């Protein structure tokens, strides 16, 4: 279903459907919204975004990352920004890159069984355009750990070109902290 939703969003983003198809589609979506409202659950019970075995943790609105390497202190992977993530002129939206980086930082912060942490800052430099619909490389590693602070470095590259880099602070939550 998530793969279908991904494909659907890309068709919506990249299409210009006829008026009657837009109307019919709206009606179909409304019908599904009504059906899904009956299946509503609390956050802890939801499936969306809680399937680490699926691309993008089972989130259709997250760039599909495939990890190629994970150890306790670093990770590498490949990602393709689909049409849905277009900013303008064939280039991925900067917010989509921030979304990707925050998620990757979350993943990196929890490697090696480390406890829950939350993003304190995410400082991004956009160095070159990140094209959509081509495979890009993502990498992340620990720079250092200081008490509750985990300082991480992330990079997004297209071939030899560095597209974006970020320094991220993840702070371990205190007991009982939400
Ligand atoms: C079942 C599912 C399977 C899934 C499979 C696993 C994959 C799992 C992937 C998850 C992926 C999700 C990843 C999303 C990650 C978010 O997106 S989290 C959401 C965005 N972030 C937030 O909402 C954070 C909001 N801010 C806060 O909650 C609090 O400010 C923080 C960050 C927790 C820190 O507050 P605090 O705990 O009171 O800590 P505090 O004492 O203020 O600071 C601790 C230290 O950090 C420093 N610090 C804190 N903030 C800053 C800052 N902005 N700048 C500089 N220094 C700072 C302090 O100066 C202090 O330093 P020291 O004095 O110790 O040297």
UniProtKB/TrEMBL annotation:
GO terms for biological process: fatty acid metabolic process. Its EC number is 3.1.2.2. GO terms for molecular function: thiolester hydrolase activity. It is a peripheral membrane protein. It catalyses: (9Z)-octadecenoyl-CoA + H2O = (9Z)-octadecenoate + CoA + H(+); tetradecanoyl-CoA + H2O = tetradecanoate + CoA + H(+); hexadecanoyl-CoA + H2O = hexadecanoate + CoA + H(+); decanoyl-CoA + H2O = decanoate + CoA + H(+). It is an enzyme of class 3 (hydrolase). Residues 89-144 form the Thioesterase domain. Pfam families: 4HBT. PANTHER family: ACYL-COENZYME A THIOESTERASE THEM4 (PTHR12418). This is Acyl-coenzyme A thioesterase THEM4. It comes from Sphingomonas chungangi.
């Amino acid at each position: 279903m998530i793969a279908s939703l991904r494909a659907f969003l890309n068709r919506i983003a990249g299409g210009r459907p006829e008026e009657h198809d837009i109307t019919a589609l709206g009606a179909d979506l409304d019908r599904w919204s009504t059906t899904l409202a009956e299946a509503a659950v609390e956050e802890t019970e939801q499936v969306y975004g809680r399937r680490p075995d699926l691309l993008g943790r089972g989130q259709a609105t997250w760039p599909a990352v495939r990890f190629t390497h994970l150890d306790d202190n670093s990770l590498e992977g490949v990602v393709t920004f689909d049409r849905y993530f277009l900013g303008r002129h064939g280039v991925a939206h900067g917010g989509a890159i921030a979304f990707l980086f925050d998620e990757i930082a979350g993943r990196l912060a929890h490697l090696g069984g480390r406890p829950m942490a939350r993003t304190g800052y995410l400082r991004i430099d956009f160095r070159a355009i990140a094209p959509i619909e081509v495979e890009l490389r993502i990498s992340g590693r620990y720079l250092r750990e200081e008490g509750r602070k985990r300082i991480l470095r992330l990079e997004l590259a297209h071939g030899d070109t560095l597209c974006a880099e970020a320094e991220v602070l993840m702070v371990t939550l205190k007991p009982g902290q939400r």
